[in-house]
Inverse folding.
């Protein structure tokens, strides 16, 4: 069972695909205050939950979603059709890194997908190059909410320098040519809802699909649950910034 299918199944009940509640997502997208005719780009869009909601909140806006998962994009297309948004979104099956549109965007999203660029710094550089001079970005990534223990690092397979603390993360995005105009730091309840949904959806699918794929899905769910509960819970935070391009 390939990694993309595992991710699709795991996010079935939480398509936002980040430790962010629906209310928090709406607040972030509303703060963008997109003008009529604005263009939105979602890098690593998955099932395009963020983009589709942006289109609902901002009439007369169009969007592009980019992802490498054909299954996730097919799910996004079905959801767009069901919500009457299919004519306002274009979906592209390709890597987010290296996506080269003909025109810049008013809003670029990269939430939980900076790994597609090799980390936060390269992702911010790419996002900045895709924005209009007065453009905005929504970028979400992890940070150390507490000093990571050796056990948490081992569980995550991470080095201490993989993330900064929250002040360091703010400095990193502003050093990359942005100013933070709003931010949302995910609460413990949002993390728990996301992780229980991720592991629970995958476990339920595994029980309904006995066989090699079901066994692989269950193994992935239990390993992830152990990594969270006995590793990074309360240590790894998640922050989503609304950023204004400078310079």
């Amino acid at each position: 069972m390939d990694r993309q299918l595992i991710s699709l199944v795991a996010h079935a009940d939480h398509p936002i695909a980040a430790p962010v509640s629906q209310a928090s997502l709406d607040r972030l997208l509303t703060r963008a205050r997109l003008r009529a005719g604005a263009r939105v780009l979602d890098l690593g869009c998955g099932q395009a939950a963020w983009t589709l909601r942006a289109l609902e909140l901002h009439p007369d806006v169009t969007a592009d979603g980019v992802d490498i998962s054909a299954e996730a994009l097919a799910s996004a297309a079905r959801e767009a059709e069901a919500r009457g948004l299919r004519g306002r979104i274009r979906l592209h099956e390709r890597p987010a890194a290296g996506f080269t549109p003909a025109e810049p965007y008013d809003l670029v999203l990269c939430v939980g997908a900076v790994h597609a660029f090799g980390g936060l710094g390269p992702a911010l550089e790419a996002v900045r190059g895709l924005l209009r001079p007065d453009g905005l970005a929504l970028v979400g990534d992890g940070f150390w909410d507490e000093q990571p223990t050796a056990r948490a690092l081992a569980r995550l397979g991470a080095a201490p320098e993989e993330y900064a603390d929250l002040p360091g993360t703010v400095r990193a995005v502003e050093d990359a040519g942005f100013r933070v105009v709003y931010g949302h730091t995910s609460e413990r309840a949002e993390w728990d809802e996301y992780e229980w949904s991720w592991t629970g959806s995958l476990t339920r699918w595994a029980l309904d699909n006995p066989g090699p794929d079901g066994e692989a899905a269950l193994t992935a769910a239990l390993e992830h649950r152990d990594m969270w509960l006995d590793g990074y819970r309360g240590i790894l935070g998640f922050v989503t910034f609304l950023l204004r391009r400078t310079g």
Strands lie at 39-43, 62-67, 89-93, 105-111, 131-144, 178-185, 236-245. The first strand starts at residue 39 and ends at 43. The mean pLDDT is 96.
